[in-house]
Every structure is written in structure tokens, then in C-alpha cells.
Amino acid sequence: MDPVTATTATRAAVPGRPWGRLVGLGAVAALTAYVGLVDPAEGGLYPVCPTRTLLGLDCPACGALRGTHDLLRGDLVAALDHNLLLPLLLALPALALGLWLRPLLGLPERRLRLPHAALVAGIVVALCFAVLRNLPVAGLEFLASDG
Question: Looking at residues 44-57, what average pLDDT do you find?
């Protein structure tokens, strides 16, 4: 193991210094609570999508905030109506966060490492989804973020 990796692994596993991870977990919890309580469709302090603002097109992530709000409210159908990729858009950061928080349980930190083929497949799926959800074709309206 090279010295940089050894130092990082040792620092991550040292008990008694979990403050950064606890603050990170608190921030994620606070942001999640905010999304659950303040409907992005009604306003709030949310970023705007540059693709939607500048080009008037839905990017692959458009509708994810509204979908997350609906999901936190227990409405899976409405959540998927805003963005069909929402499960993937939420699963990857959740998995990365879980791996990052492992030292709080006394386990070594692990990084999320996607195989190259999975990364390429994800990019292809996102691009195809972005194109299909913006085509003015009858039968594909359900892919748009505004339902």
C-alpha cells in the first residue's frame, strides 16, 4: 500500500474523529427534510436547471427534485412521473454516502468504484433518455419532467 493510501485509510479508521462525517450526515438529513417539506413545484430555495432555463429542454435529471419530494411523501407513481431515472439518480449517491459513513460504524471507508462498462452504459442510458423525453412524438409525453 502506498503511503498516501495508508495515511488516508488510517485517518478514516481512527475512532474519536467522526465530526466531519457526522456534519455531512446532518447536512444530508437537513437537505432531505427540506426537500420533503418544501414542494419544489411551489417554490423554495432550489437551483434551476441550466438546460431547461437556457434551451427549454429536459436534461436527464429534470424532475428529480419534484420526484424526490413526491417519493418522500410516499407517492412513488408521481415520483416516477417526474423522472423515470429517479431510482438510479438516488441510488448511486445513497450508496456512495453509505460507503463514506462506514467509519462511523467502525468499518473502513470504501469508495464507490463503478466498472468502466457500467459508467459507459449509464451515460448512454442518460443520453437516450434525454433525447427521448424531448422528442415531440405522440406516446413519449410521459417521459417529460412536467408529466
Answer: 91
